[in-house]
Amino acid sequence: MKLELRGITKRFGALTANDRIDLTVEPGEIHCLLGENGAGKSTLMNVLYGLYQADEGEILLDDVVQHFQGPGDAMGAGIGMVHQHFMLIPVFTVAENVMLGHEQTKGGGRLDVAAARKLVIDISERFGFSLDPDAIVGDLPVGVQQRVEIVKALSRNANVLVFDEPTAVLTPQETDELMAIMKQLKDEGTSIVFITHKLREVREVADRITVIRLGKVVGEASPTATNAELASLMVGRPVELTVHKEAPNLGDTTFTVQDLSVVDHLGQLVVNGVSFEVREGEVLAIAGVQGNGQTELTEAILGLQPHTKGSIKLDGVELVGSTPRKVLDAGVGFVPEDRSEDGLVKQFTIAENLMLDRSTGAPFVKAGNVQRGFRDEFAREKSQEFDVRSQGIESPAGSLSGGNQQKVVLARELSRELRLFVAAQPTRGIDVGSIEFVHKRIVATRDAGIPVIVVSTELDEVVALADRIAVMYRGGIVGIVPASTPREVLGLMMAGELPAGAAA
């Protein structure tokens, strides 16, 4: 089936998320929609899927104009979507999830679960999915849950499949398996729209590439284009993609975690007996699929997890039981994984956000009064040093782009005397130009002799920044390995396996 989008425009108030976008996907083609987070890719696909109504433009399937009032209309026309955040009911079986929304019934109005089970088995055998129709979805690994989403779409005779950032929660091996599935679907004539910002994946499977920047199509590219060429199209300027760093100049071991366990508010053990150490002048990267305890580990280091056992020592001083204020005062800099919720007060100005964790005394506060002159001079200096692009230091932090918000957080945290720097998902949701800047600052911090912990689900980022890599799985550390460890070995560890030769 041929898909055409003509002049699609979608506005949210004063924001134009999609600006007269044209896109054509031929039958049996994998067409990659490439762009940074916030470029308008997902908005465009939500228009296609009927979740949003376009303000201007039209959708055509095999040259026939379509009028979708909702996802049901899109699915009825042969469009399926595999969402970044799965649309599955965890307590339902695979078969129940697949039949949800277009239930078949038999005598007496009863659900025909047997028909749904047969449909799952037939599609699974066709693509080698090995799905158990009676398995509870919540018990399945993330990669298998994604296959359930694909079976759901195919069960409704989808001729056009949209994959929205499908690899965000997958291990490298699961990503490779998904690439193979996409190629098989293509060979059977399915048209695929693949949304991503990961350059390696684009070049792996795309037949054609359309690049979107700030809501507009800025060009098409060939899969043979280099990463640098694709990045330049995405950002609008040349970008240095390689992280340059010298061999570490290691100092003393000043940060240690011993037998650390964390129980969350539901009583679940989310960090289980974790131990590691970090030396001065070293980056320890913590890798793993999202949701394996990384968030709770960093929160425990900051004193944000109340139910923590074990030991966390910085310069020989025990931090377990300390308040976040005492942890910060001990010299810990922290970039949280969700800058909007935990890193900034969006209604506050840039200047106010830059003094957030230093609002209790000199030089920012004297006799209970904010020293506005000092604060504003500091803010102007740091905005320039960290290349924060804004209308001025009185601009609300919430008015900044994601990359500039992250620079404000970095500027605040790296402008203190640090003894440890912890950066959780430091480049999530920012453009490749800002990623380049963030990586340079992390390496500079390490080169200044400060122990650094980077937590990231982006394996390329982990490998680029790390001196050593600790891999987390289900709350524990599977092993700690050198940064030179092959990607396939790291992928196995992210799935819970400890390959021969890797240190537990």
UniProtKB/TrEMBL annotation:
Entry keyword Translocase: yes
Pfam family, one: ABC_tran
Domain ABC transporter: start-end pairs: 3-239, 255-499
Top-level taxon of origin: Bacteria
Topology within the bilayer: Peripheral membrane protein
GO CC annotation, single: plasma membrane
UniProt cross-references to InterPro entries, sorted A to Z: AAA+_ATPase, ABC_carbohydrate_import_ATPase, ABC_transporter-like_ATP-bd, ABC_transporter-like_CS, P-loop_NTPase
Record flagged with keyword Aminoacyl-tRNA synthetase: no
GO molecular function: ATP binding; ATP hydrolysis activity
Localization annotation: Cell membrane
Protein known as: Nucleoside ABC transporter ATP-binding protein
Species the sequence originates in: Plantibacter flavus
